[in-house]
Amino acid sequence: MPVLSVLPALLYFIVVPVLLVLSHPNISPCRLTQTTALCNGCKLSTVPQNLPQQTEELFLNHNSILALQSGCLLRYPALRLFSCANNSLTTVEGDAFSGSALIENLNLANNQLHNGHKGLAQSLRSLTRLRTLDLSSNGLTEDMASYVLQNLTSLEFLYLSGNFLLRLDESTFKDLHQLKELNLDRNLLFEIDGAFDHLKKLQRLNLAFNSLPCLVQFEMTQLVVLNASHNRIEWFITNPDLPETFQLETLDLSDNQLLFFPFLPSHSRIKTLLLSNNHIGFYGHLADNSSSNWTDSVEYYNMGKNASNITVEIWDEGLTGDISTVELLDLSGNQLRSFPEGFLQKMPRLYWLRLRRNCLESLSLTVQDMPETLYELDVSDNRLTELHAQPSSANKLNNLTHLNLSLNDIQVLPPRVFTTLPSLSSVDLSYNSVGVCPSRDVSDSDAQVCAVWSNLSSLKQLYIAGCSVRSLSPSVFEGTPLTHLELSNNPDLAVDQNCLSSLVGSLQHLGLSNTGLQNFDFSPYRHLKFLNISNNSIWELPKSLISLNLKLLDLRNNMLSTIQSEDATVLAQRVRAVYVNGNAFNCCQLEWYRMFEESKALHAVDLSEVTCIDLHQRRRKAMLFNSLECGGQSTEESIIWYILLFLSVGVSLVGISIIYFLTFRQKLLPHAIKKRCWRPTSY
Ligand SMILES: *[C@@H]1O[C@H](CO)[C@@H](O)[C@H](O)[C@H]1NC(C)=O
Ligand SMILES: *[C@@H]1O[C@H](CO)[C@@H](O)[C@H](O)[C@H]1NC(C)=O
Ligand SMILES: *[C@@H]1O[C@H](CO)[C@@H](O)[C@H](O)[C@H]1NC(C)=O
Ligand SMILES: *[C@@H]1O[C@H](CO)[C@@H](O)[C@H](O)[C@H]1NC(C)=O
Ligand SMILES: *[C@@H]1O[C@H](CO)[C@@H](O)[C@H](O)[C@H]1NC(C)=O
Ligand SMILES: *[C@@H]1O[C@H](CO)[C@@H](O)[C@H](O)[C@H]1NC(C)=O
Ligand SMILES: *[C@@H]1O[C@H](CO)[C@@H](O)[C@H](O)[C@H]1NC(C)=O
Ligand SMILES: *[C@@H]1O[C@H](CO)[C@@H](O)[C@H](O)[C@H]1NC(C)=O
Ligand SMILES: *[C@@H]1O[C@H](CO)[C@@H](O)[C@H](O)[C@H]1NC(C)=O
Ligand SMILES: *[C@@H]1O[C@H](CO)[C@@H](O)[C@H](O)[C@H]1NC(C)=O
Ligand SMILES: *[C@@H]1O[C@H](CO)[C@@H](O)[C@H](O)[C@H]1NC(C)=O
Ligand SMILES: *[C@@H]1O[C@H](CO)[C@@H](O)[C@H](O)[C@H]1NC(C)=O
């Protein structure tokens, strides 16, 4: 066939597909599902015009659209949701939304609309059904914001976080009568002057991460959630003259500078009260002294000429307001030395009480001093020296399940205090000087500070790290089905084979770091999943570990010089995570290292940091160590050397014997000749 006759066919096959592609330039990168078009991250620079006309939800987040021009949405009259966040919008033209009167939800967050706020304001006027508007992170000041928000009377949810709002007053949100939720977090607010007074439907208000110095005359009775965390608030004072019940359920004032417990409404429904990281204390004991000079009113000035006087009896601890519905109280990281008489009893529904990092000196685990409902109590990192308990016959804290007393200095404690808590499931008593009572015959008047851990049928997790425990007798955990036991940092502890024998059937998590452990038979502990034997003096990997199905094994800071290849093989298959650094590994016996490196099942967390000791007693990075430096030390090579040595000895032996044989032969030869010669021959 002549070449010329093939050409048209070739042309057809090449050109037609190209033309087909060119004639459909609108092939859309968007994902369509029913009436939703998802065009997020499609590198678009304009609103696509080729989507179905009945599209109701259009997502254009993470593109590079600079402007929304007039008529750009005309094609989509059914639009209810339009999201154009994370673009580089600087302009929204005045009639950009003119044909989209049905839009209810508009998200323009993370753009640059500060300069174009006038056009934006005008464009929003046509959205008479707008309920949700997100203008977060657009560089807006309060004047721009109040301009944009004018007449948006239908708005219910407004997000303005991460802008440059400094101060709010009555005019800022004046038309937003329907507003239910307002997020103003991460602005620069230092003053709020009547800005929320007319927002009668507002239920959720977020003011977190601003610079507010106080919240006084609080009177938003309809508010359900108020978040004012991460400000500089020194005072929170409710207007005391309001008899109504506040709807407030969640109040977050954490990370502020409160000196006093907040002055809460006298009737409220508050359930969650978050006050961590302030300077709160109770000072009633100071106020009793009549000689005291201290003022008892707080003056509050705003930026205008108006100064108001708010008088509260700051020393009167009865005036904390209504806390009877509180379920969660977080007072971690404050200055509490004690509670006023009966304070905790004012919260008969309290389940979670968090008092970490305060200055409490004593604690009473009795229903006289604690709400009976208490479920979780964290008093870690305080100055507790005394712990009091219920007399055994009386009512108990029946619901107390999690108790954290770590990092204190407990010196007085009834040994059987934990047996009075029938639901107790986890106790952290680490870093106190409380030993473990040798179970039998403990009298409550025992001088020794120790706790009884036997026959606690609900207890699952026990943490007694750093408690100077010296010995454990075999029956101490009898009748207590622990799954977790943390004994680390008790360096004088003699862990012998028997002392944990009652836990053989239950233990899953065992911490024995820094306990002077040398060898231990782990094989009976068949349920063990997590084992920490770091910081001990282990010379050789205990063989009993190989039979377990561990998930995590911490072997750091021991004296291991190698891990036998056969053990390494099993570990690499069974264990999920292992820590090995800080041992005295021999650089010339790193077969295990390669196995761990290659294993897919095992994650050797610190493998890249592992060091080893080379022939010259220097510490080297195992990862960078070149095994050739070991020279003849490697086992395969030494076998060759043995063979060579054997061979050379053998060869020389053979040589010697040949020489010997030959020299002997020399003497024999003439003899034979002589013999022959002697023989009479018949020549
Ligand atoms: C915009 O980007 C930020 C940061 O990448 C991200 O946190 C946010 O969720 C994005 N917003 C939307 C609506 O995609
Ligand atoms: C807001 O509405 C009022 C009354 O309907 C009107 O007079 C005013 O011009 C509107 N403001 C803007 C900025 O559109
Ligand atoms: C308060 O707001 C901050 C920042 O938005 C957030 O991290 C925190 O979880 C909020 N608190 C509550 C109780 O929702
Ligand atoms: C108040 O009086 C008590 C003894 O009654 C005393 O210990 C305390 O230091 C006094 N406080 C002040 C602030 O004077
Ligand atoms: C009361 O205040 C005055 C002035 O601040 C001070 O000089 C005086 O010592 C104070 N008195 C007492 C009892 O603290
Ligand atoms: C000061 O506040 C009062 C009521 O709180 C108000 O009537 C008065 O107009 C305010 N004065 C100024 C100058 O703002
Ligand atoms: C606040 O009250 C105190 C005492 O009642 C008074 O001396 C002071 O002048 C008042 N301040 C203002 C701004 O009203
Ligand atoms: C115990 O505390 C839990 C909180 O997790 C709560 O749901 C439960 O109602 C409490 N029980 C009693 C009897 O207070
Ligand atoms: C107890 O509190 C300490 C310090 O506050 C913390 O590190 C530890 O994890 C807590 N224990 C438990 C069991 O949660
Ligand atoms: C645990 O309780 C049983 C029976 O209630 C008792 O026989 C045993 O001695 C107790 N064990 C310890 C260590 O107190
Ligand atoms: C093992 O115990 C030590 C001491 O308590 C601790 O520092 C280390 O993080 C633990 N290892 C793992 C893997 O949790
Ligand atoms: C474990 O030992 C290492 C090195 O000896 C030391 O730096 C570390 O603090 C120890 N860790 C504990 C929890 O004792």
TrEMBL record:
One Pfam family this sequence matches: LRR_1
SUPFAM superfamilies linked to this entry: L domain-like, RNI-like
Swiss-Prot/TrEMBL keywords: Leucine-rich repeat, Membrane, Repeat, Signal, Transmembrane, Transmembrane helix
Signal peptide range in chain numbering: 1-23
InterPro entries: Leu-rich_rpt, Leu-rich_rpt_typical-subtyp, LRR_dom_sf
Membrane spanning residue stretches: 639-662
Source organism, top-level taxon: Eukaryota
Name this protein carries in UniProt: Negative regulator of reactive oxygen species
Name of the gene encoding the protein in the UniProt record: nrros
The organism's taxonomic lineage, starting at the top: Eukaryota, Metazoa, Chordata, Craniata, Vertebrata
